[in-house]
């Protein structure tokens, strides 16, 4: 028996590209059906292009149907309406093709989408700026629990916020850097992302784009509406069994903002203004980016923590960025990237981040948009083993802390270890003071200017494994939750 050849991801994408549409068209032709319009194939990488393509296709179809009532119709003249194609069209993956169909649930959605395009896009002003969120996207994201803000932002309650409200433990940022998870707001000023990572837990339902070309909301409105939306969702926990009264009261005051909900926050044109307004309200900022927009990073004002998401080790260089508390985040996916220790070590040596967070991928259930299964989720022992191999190749780093509950381990520069004690926590009041000084006088500062001592329970190797002893470990069905 001859073994079947394993197809590469590129070959598989080409093989499955718009497969349903191609097969349907083929079978209709076999049934002697006539093509009113030629088969049109598109991809989902740019939602605006999909809208534009659908509009052009619809207008061609309407024109053809109108012509059919005339004796000079294109059908009688044996003419065909030419198909419009994007000259930059290229192949897409099978998930994108399937999403194109799945994003429209019923005929009402199709009509709704056409009406939106008809009244907002068909205009004498070809340069009219469109909104990022269409009615269909709003419906999809709202169903997933997002509180949408303006035309391109969103906020959502993190599971760790709920957990800490109940006294069941905080997230790894609480263990590594001392945030209060019940006072943390997770939001984004840009729901659009430049990628569709295979391990993304957001189900690829957000818009995709590599540049900002939508209507832009002001930073103060985004911040105010996000805070109000967050507080409204938190207030729903009033009286919920297990919620601690003191923490519930504290949760009304947001002290931290994780700019990592979904999308690429740094794409937002007024990101510096938004960050500055947060700091003026004593809200620390944890900004996540995959570093695809280097000019935006270079122009970024100091943030409390800048995350660079390093999704895979490669030979391409990563530009060194001199910002406070730069963190590399490595997401380990079993059978994907856990054999690339040396390559990751090379990237870390080149970028010299203050911290490196190594985290096992989180399985979020079956999805048509992701091939990740439980088999791809590494055990915490596997993550620790990977980290130990990584640190062995790094002279200036060591393992500082861990959060077993999140399957996450923190590597830190030895500069943060003073007299045998780790200082990975953050003195937030000191940071706000330094940020205000930078805003007024332009005086720069480093992460060493606002570091604080890491508690013993958070250290790697401690018996608590990163779980705050002030909280109570929650057990469900004899298993740790």
From TrEMBL:
Residues 350-413 form the tRNA wybutosine-synthesis domain. GO terms for biological process: wybutosine biosynthetic process. GO terms for molecular function: 4 iron, 4 sulfur cluster binding; metal ion binding; tRNA-4-demethylwyosine synthase activity. This is tRNA wybutosine-synthesizing protein 1-like protein. Keywords: 4Fe-4S, Iron, Iron-sulfur, Lyase, Metal-binding, S-adenosyl-L-methionine, tRNA processing. It holds the Pfam family Wyosine_form. Residues 189-324 form the Radical SAM core domain. Its cofactor is [4Fe-4S] cluster. It catalyses: N(1)-methylguanosine(37) in tRNA(Phe) + pyruvate + S-adenosyl-L-methionine = 4-demethylwyosine(37) in tRNA(Phe) + 5'-deoxyadenosine + L-methionine + CO2 + H2O. CDD domains: Radical_SAM (cd01335). InterPro entries: Aldolase_TIM, rSAM, rSAM_sf, tRNA_wybutosine-synth, tRNA_wybutosine-synthase. The lineage of its organism: Eukaryota, Metazoa, Ecdysozoa, Nematoda, Enoplea. It comes from the Eukaryota.
């Amino acid at each position: 028996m001859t073994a079947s050849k394993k197809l590469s991801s590129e070959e598989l994408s080409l093989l499955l590209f718009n497969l349903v549409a191609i097969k349907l068209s083929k079978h209709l032709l076999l049934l002697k059906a006539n093509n009113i319009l030629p088969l049109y194939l598109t991809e989902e990488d740019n939602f605006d292009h999909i809208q534009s393509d659908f509009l052009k296709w619809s207008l061609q179809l309407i024109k053809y149907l109108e012509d059919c009532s005339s004796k000079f119709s294109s059908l009688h003249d044996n003419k065909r309406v030419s198909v419009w194609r994007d000259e930059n069209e290229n192949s897409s993956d099978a998930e994108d093709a399937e999403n194109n169909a799945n994003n429209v649930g019923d005929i009402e959605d199709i009509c709704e989408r056409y009406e939106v395009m008809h009244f907002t896009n068909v205009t004498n002003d070809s340069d009219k700026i469109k909104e990022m969120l269409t009615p269909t996207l709003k419906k999809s994201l709202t169903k997933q629990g997002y509180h949408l803000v303006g035309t391109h932002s969103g906020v959502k309650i993190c599971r760790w916020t709920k957990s800490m409200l109940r006294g069941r433990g905080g997230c790894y940022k609480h263990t590594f850097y001392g945030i209060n998870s019940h006072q943390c707001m997770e939001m984004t000023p840009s729901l659009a992302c430049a990628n569709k990572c295979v391990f993304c837990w957001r189900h690829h339902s957000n818009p995709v784009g590599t540049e900002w070309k939508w209507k832009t909301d002001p930073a103060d409105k985004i911040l105010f509406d996000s805070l109000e939306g967050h507080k409204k969702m938190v207030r729903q926990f009033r009286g919920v069994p297990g919620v601690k009264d003191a923490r519930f009261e504290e949760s009304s005051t947001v002290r931290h903002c994780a700019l990592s909900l979904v999308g690429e926050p740094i794409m937002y044109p007024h990101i510096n203004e938004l960050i500055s307004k947060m700091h003026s309200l004593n809200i620390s900022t944890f900004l996540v980016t995959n570093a695809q927009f280097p000019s935006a990073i270079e122009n970024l004002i100091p943030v409390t923590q800048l995350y660079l998401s390093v999704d895979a080790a490669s030979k391409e260089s990563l530009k060194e960025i001199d910002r406070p508390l730069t963190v590399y985040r490595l997401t380990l996916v079993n059978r994907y990237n856990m054999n690339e220790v040396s390559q990751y070590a090379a990237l870390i040596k080149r970028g010299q981040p203050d911290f490196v967070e190594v985290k096992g991928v989180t399985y979020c259930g079956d999805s048509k948009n992701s091939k990740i299964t439980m088999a791809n989720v590494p055990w915490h022992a596997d993550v620790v083993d990977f980290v130990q191999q990584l640190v062995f190749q790094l002279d200036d780093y060591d393992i500082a802390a861990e959060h077993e509950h999140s399957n996450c381990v923190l590597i830190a520069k030895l500069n943060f270890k003073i007299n045998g004690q780790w200082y990975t926590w953050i003195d937030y009041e000191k940071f706000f003071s330094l940020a205000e000084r930078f805003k007024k006088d332009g005086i720069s500062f480093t992460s060493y200017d606002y570091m604080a001592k890491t508690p013993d329970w958070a250290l790697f190797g401690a018996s608590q494994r990163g779980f705050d002893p002030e909280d109570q470990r929650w057990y469900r069905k004899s298993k740790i939750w």
